[in-house]
Amino acid sequence: xxxxxxxxxxxxxxxxxxxxxxxxxxxxxxxxxxxxxxxxxxxxxxxxxxxxxxxxxxxxxxxxxxxxxxxxxxxxxxxxxxxxxxxxxxxxxxxxxxxxxxxxxxxxxxxxxxxxxxxxxxxxxxxxxxxxxxxxxxxxxxxxxxxxxxxxxxxxxxxxxxxxxxxxxxxxxxxxxxxxxxxxxxxxxxxxxxxxxxxxxxxxxxxxxxxxxxxxxxxxxxxxxxxxxxxxxxxxxxxxxxxxxxxxxxxxxxxxxxxxxxxxxxxxxxxxxxxxxxxxxxxxxxxxxxxxxxxxxxxxxxxxxxxxxxxxxxxxxxxxxxxxxxxxxxxxxxxxxxxxxxxxxxxxxxxxxxxxxxxxxxxxxxxxxxxxxxxxxxxxxxxxxxxxxxxxxxxxxxxxxxxxxxxxxxxxxxxxxxxxxxxxxxxxxxxxxxxxxxxxxxxxxxxxxxxxxxxxx
Length: 457
Ligand SMILES: Cc1ncc(COP(=O)(O)O)c(C=O)c1O
Prior knowledge:
Number of strands: 15
Helix content: 40-55%
Structural class: alpha/beta
Bound molecules: pyridoxal-5'-phosphate
Strand content: 15-25%
């Protein structure tokens, strides 16, 4: 390794508090520094060339090094660079983007609120839930129900919504007023002999019990990812959202669809809500909106909620919420160019077709292996459940850390895959430009890696 790279790693370890990184282990292993990328491939500073089968953090949907996005960014930055959108100020790219997004978004959304990422998108919707219920004279309807295994961000409010205990411990979270319903993970939580549909009915019944236990007049919203991402790539079991929505509608509870991972084609449709029959009152999107090239999120609300926000302005003067970078003209221009690529290259349909192939091949490749308990996901989102023995449904001991072991080996074999240690699974969410032959290479490299690690157990 060149001195420069050694110095960079040292400097990194000495200077940066890395998100979601073990502070002790990282100091020993050092960072992996990415220096360039093109298509689905990245180069690190150690000279490795890697297929990124995760698309960064499930976001680089049009692939790395896209000149179209760089050009859009350059043009918008040269033209003006920045102007805020507070107090009725605006810019051309955000207006064009809003119009385009509202035609794409499911369930007749009326207005879009721009921010910089998934956490502040969800955070904003949480505040709007409170604002809405206060304004309609139901101030006590302020509790928000999320689900165990969910991931909704890491701000104080959204880490509370996140249903992964490691995001709560010693952070004094979750905050009051956030409740967690049981997770939709059929594989882990189904009772002996219970069908998927029976499981969904049970989960809806449990949700109703939770609501009644806390008082239906105190619950304002329910939030869910169409397919859970970081919590395990958990697809909803059959009938799940239909059953859940019977309950949310019955008790007048707003439904927030967190499409931060699923939105913009990842599942083979523009939005996950379309696949699972979700009729949200509010939606958060981020990540793939700009393919990660610019921090940008778009959250949507229905006309009914917009009407109430107008009542708020009649009462208070202004909707007193927003961020310096909301509707950033450079981000909006990048989003427009990114949507152009998705549409012109037919990436949503490609995601459906290549995604189906990906799942079929993963299933076929490990059909006889006892160390694979399940291949989950939809479209270009997949996870492989690793197990000590799938026949007897024996999980690995947690201390084995099987998923990180496998992904470290994948890296050695030129593949970035994502470990989901809390569920012993390895996740994939490749860029949507990934071809079937790329999928073959991804699975070859994964297979080689996983067999090497399993042979050592
Ligand atoms: C479903 C979901 N919601 C929200 C977030 C938070 O987004 P951000 O990291 O941009 O704040 C994430 C991030 O991975 C996510 O997966």
